[in-house]
Amino acid sequence: MLELAILGLLKEQALHGYELKKRLSEMLGPFSGASFGSLYPALRRLEAAGAVEAVASDPVARPIPMTGSLGGELAAFAARRRSAAGAKGGRTRRVYAITSSGQQLFEELLAADSGSTDDDRTFNLKLAFARHLPPAGRVNLLERRRAQLVQRLSQARANARARRGLLDAYSRSVLEHCRETTERDISWLEQLIAAEKGSVK
Amino acid sequence: MLELAILGLLKEQALHGYELKKRLSEMLGPFSGASFGSLYPALRRLEAAGAVEAVASDPVARPIPMTGSLGGELAAFAARRRSAAGAKGGRTRRVYAITSSGQQLFEELLAADSGSTDDDRTFNLKLAFARHLPPAGRVNLLERRRAQLVQRLSQARANARARRGLLDAYSRSVLEHCRETTERDISWLEQLIAAEKGSVK
DNA sequence: CCCCGATGTATCGATCCGATATAACGGTAG
DNA sequence: CTACCGTTATATCGGATCGATACATCGGGG
Q1: How many whole angstroms separate alpha carbon A56 and alpha carbon A53?
Q2: CB of B139 within 8 A of CB of B197?
Q3: What tens digit of pLDDT does each residue of A29-80 get?
Q4: pLDDT digit string (tens) for A65-74?
């Protein structure tokens, strides 16, 4: 859910699309579900829903080039002209800020269960924003994830028993590596859960 | 690339959509990029491209219910009637087999480089089919993947240095866990590469 | 001065996903 | 026997995402 990621970042400060994407990429690694082709439509959706609003078509928003006030006014004029002309691309920044209804939407999305259909990426995203969750919500998120991985693991094991011998070495290697990764994920989660409960106590 | 997965499975034996999905799910875990909403369109694409062909609208393809030849003929008739009526859903199996041009397409997709835009799932898929690759192709695949992960890792580290202190404990935990997972992936790859080179020698 | 690379917004087509509809079959409870 | 239910099976829809590409502006170096 890209919306959640966007709202979470805008919650801290108003940003424009390009910067948003950079932060997203470095926050979730390269597998963030963030590309311009999905980011800009998502921003439009959020804007249409009233969850975010454009705060300033601030042209480049950089310390004024100190050639007197004239420079600033010219830049502003140029921005207006570009905006009015329906410029199809270009460098004029569109800075978005979160609204109060966006804040609310963020809370809802963060706490949403989605009935175990929570993607791997969605979980990482939610955990990265766990600071905005109440302690009970954090534990809940971690426990749900843990249950999901445990189930996935037992299913993988049952499957491995059923098909032992039918697969070649490469397939088996992939499967086993996945199994190990899942096991490590689970023990990571258990550490986090323990830490969470320890801090509450 | 779902096409690659489908062709790889059909290479071993002719299958229908439902079975294809089951094998896909247990082959790549639950993150196989396989859902009916993408599987059936992919089959249609492959059929249109001549890479696969329907071999029999075999109704349930089960040992004939031993009531003489009549049972079989009735079933075949029912299947023909259903097929002609343009049935919108239902249980009539559509079994697909790979064609020689499909074999060729499979080789191409498996060996394709895609200029480092290879997804995590795509890599796992290709590795699972590495048996169909020449030894040099296997090493190439593994080395490419390793280079990709090494780059991802160094980027993540540079990023961590830059933003140290700006992130809360949850974000940092996610990031660090990702880093560890990537490191393990790399050492796994290095094992595979060593094994591959050892077996060649 | 002019081109190059980084910054920035935007869109297109293709693909993939989750939900849902449709339908036939096997078994079992009444 | 039938009425229902869970599994098997194909198919489609709308929406989300992706990768590629286009367009536009700015700063800096040759």
Answers
A1: 9
A2: yes
A3: 777 778 999 999 999 999 999 999 998 765 544 444 444 444 445 544 544 4
A4: 444 444 445 5
Q: Cβ of A124 and B174 within 8 Å?
A: yes
Contact A127 B173 (CB under 8 A): yes
The maximal CA–CA distance of chain A, rounded, in angstroms, is: 78
Residues of A in Cβ contact (< 8 Å) with B188: 177
Which A residues between 87 and 126 have a beta carbon under 7 A from any strand D atom? 87-92
Q: Is A148 on the interface with B (CB under 8 A)?
A: no
Separation between Cα atoms, residue B33 and residue B16, nearest integer Å: 17
> What CATH architecture is B2-111?
Orthogonal Bundle (1.10)
pLDDT tens by residue, B26-55: 888 777 778 999 999 999 999 999 999 998
Residues in chain A with pLDDT values less than 70: 57-90, 115-117, 199-201
Q: What is the pLDDT of residue B58?
A: 55
- Pairwise CB contact (< 8 Å): B128 & A171: yes
DSSP for A76-138, written as a single string: HHHHHHHHHTT-SSSS---EEEE-HHHHHHHHHHHH--GGG---HHHHHHHHHTGGGS-HHHH
A46 or B85: which carries more pLDDT confidence? A46
Question: Confidence band (pLDDT; 50, 70, 90) for B127?
Answer: very high
The CA–C1' separation of B111 and D19, in angstroms, is 20
Cβ(B135)–Cβ(B121) under 8 Å?
no
- Report the nucleotide nearest the CA of residue A117, measured to C1': C18
A152 at the B interface (CB within 8 A)?
yes
Q: CA of A136 to nearest chain B CA: how many angstroms apart?
A: 15
**Strands annotated E in B84-135:** 95-98
What average pLDDT does this structure show over B22-29?
Answer: 86
- Extents of the domains making up chain B: 2-111, 134-200
Closest nucleotide (C1' vs CA) to B59 is C24
